[in-house]
Specification:
Layout (H helix, E strand, L loop, with lengths): L2 E7 L2 E9 L3 E5 L7 H5 L3 H4 L4 E6 L15 H15 L4 E6 L2 H11 L4 E7 L9 H16 L2 H11 L2 H15 L9 H8 L14 E7 L8 H9 L4 E5 L5 H4 L1 H12 L1
Parallel strand pairs: 3-4, 3-5, 5-6, 6-7, 7-8
Antiparallel strand pairs: 1-2, 2-4
Helix pairs in contact: 3-4, 5-8
Amino acid sequence: MTSGTTINVGNAAVHYSRTGSGPGLVLVHGSGSACAEMTWGQIAPRFADRRTVITPNLSGTDLTVDDEAPLTVEGLAGQVIAVIEHNGTGPVDLVGFSLGSPVATAVAALRPDLVRRLVLVAGWVATDGDEYLRNLFTVLHHLGAAGTEAFSRLITLTGFSRGFLNAIGRDEVEKLVPLLPPTPGTPRHIDLDLRVDVGPLLPRIEAETLVVGCSQDATVPVEHSLQLHAAIPGSTYAELDAGHVVLFEKTDEFVELVRGFIL
């Protein structure tokens, strides 16, 4: 059974969902999500038989209301920290996907007492210095603010591998595109994507860490996951043959990989 709760964290009324029982497992969504359910809806139940699975909706999603100030990694990390503390389930295992990766990084670095194991999926250290990332995020920011179909098509192209799109075929791709619209909070998330820099926090991570790269990632190229791995002392690296949204392309492989790491 899934339950929803809202707590006040600074300037935000942060909503989160909780399901299952057992040690805590917190899943942090990426940018552009209307809610955590869009990212983790088919993943959370796979862990709920053994874990209390907690999925926060961070500022910029439809379910969390705030003053709409510019987002920061530390601010979003503070929301995750508050959710963990409110549940009293720490230390937890913490999984961050895409923008959720730098957010989870900050949680682990700032509050090592709350994180047992850390999984960073399709993440990156810093946007500045990679002109591909900077330009892609800039285009997505403009298209997201304009609310055009072009945003959804570009997200489809960069979010999924070519092989996956060809395998599901035109009809399924055309059904997929409308499911990926920009939300009102999308430009805020992508504005933060453009400013991410968690480099100074990486040496402070104490939790056992698994970095997961996606070999066909056209949103955040896999080299960024390798950089994360190299910068986090004692981390483990695994690579899945998928595009950015590995949670959908390789659901079974992803669940098996994470489950094996957090046992």
